[in-house]
Amino acid sequence: MKKIIHTIIQNGWSSLLLLTIFFAFTTTSCKNNEGDGNGTPVIKYIRLTDPALADSTFTDVNPGTMIAVIGENLSGVMEVYINGQEISFNSTYSTPTSLIISVPYDEDFKLSGPNPELPAELRIVTNHGTAVFPLHVLSPGPSITRIAATYPLQPGDSITLIGANFYEIQHLYYTTDSVNVTQEITDYQINSDFEELTFAVGDQMTQDGWIILDCYTDDASIEFKPNGPKPIITNISSIMPVVGSEVTITGQNFIEVSNININGEFEVPGEDVTVSESFDELTFIMPQAPTHSGHITITSIGGTTEMEEIFYPIENVIIDYDGIGSFSWGTDPPFVADGINPPYVSTGNCIGAKGTIDSSNLFWWKQFINTAKWPSTDVIPSYTQISELELQFECYLELPMDGPVIQISMGHPNGNDTGGNPYFTLENYVPINSFTEESETGKWMQCCIPLTSLIQETTWGEFLNNKISDELNFYINYSSLTQPTDIEIYVDNIRIMQTKQEEN
């Protein structure tokens, strides 16, 4: 990747600091004060404002960089232009041999990358003339997210690179070793948004390799497979979806999906899978529940990929209303969805609550009091940090929870201990789809709550030792009730899981 000089302007710098910088380089510049300040203005070079980097001259600069312009006869500055656009400057930081300016860093400032008609230059207008100097304000570097094509590919077939910032292209080529150029690509078209680049497959592009896009600012690459790229899985809507509900998987290269294998037990055929036009999302209906935990695999034109995350982690389930854990008591017993009324589908039994909260029951409406079967230390090691765990469950909201909230207690009953101190309880919870990060209605969704919101212990072993009960309870109330409110909610497959670690 290209090496560039990069100094971002820091907001909130004091005038004193700027003056210190100004006088530091002014003193140095004036030692060789060429010109009386009234002759033809000349820009000799541009450098950073740090005196220690005085030798770091350049003509490429990132937006937001503070620079020192060194030259002759620069007094009486009236206007300053970058890329043909007038920018603000402080005349206080101007001498006959120098000027401190900041390259704009806002969306209104046009870059020459997406606007090649702009002059890549710095222009200083004084009361006695104008000085011009080459200055290239760098555009964001390119990125390639996928290849759009019809596979398998043959020489002459059209392909399109999909990405962003396809500005100021220097070279485009195919390579079999990601280092040496196998075939240069010179005939290509770029759309008006600089997000799509289309060309014909070259006669030497017959084996797996790489396509390299070298732009002025940076470069980008993507693997090229003429027979089709291997699918990539990045996320799933739920790791334990309710049978009969829709499952969504996101990723890349879901091209001609032939099947989805569920934990090695059964398959969803390709004809039952819906794939987006961009081949980065697919959906299917969960046909049945596997009998053991495992992994999902997707087979497409480019091969087979296994999802890293465990699918249907039965060992981590603490309550499923079908034999793991148990329902202790509440307003409504567990039931099986009838296909006619919400939630329409269920994996065996689920629990639910339906009705109206009014002034007579706003603090104590319906609840699910459960006895949990906690995962053993063979499943979750005792040393596992609570900060690395979360409570997961499937939830169905028929109506929005605009006002009603949920309280959840874990490892103890709701209320106070013998000393009158309240137990650690999550309050004011509204179910949120962990996949979309929104509270949704009319569908089953996976909800995730950090375990640090529910218990005070540091490790899983400490919780198992310190808990005073095996209860995991949901209480629904509306403490700020203003008018009677209908609510309908269903819950299933409650589990303790390792928090998914986001990749940097």
Automatic annotation (TrEMBL):
Asked if the keyword Kinase belongs to this entry, the reply reads no
- May I ask which residue range the UniProt record assigns to the signal sequence? 1-26
Keywords per UniProt: Signal
Q: Where is the Surface glycan-binding protein B xyloglucan binding domain?
A: 315-497
Q: Which domain of life is it from?
A: Bacteria
Where are the membrane-spanning stretches?
Answer: none
Q: What is this protein called?
A: Surface glycan-binding protein B xyloglucan binding domain-containing protein
Source organism (scientific name): Phocaeicola intestinalis
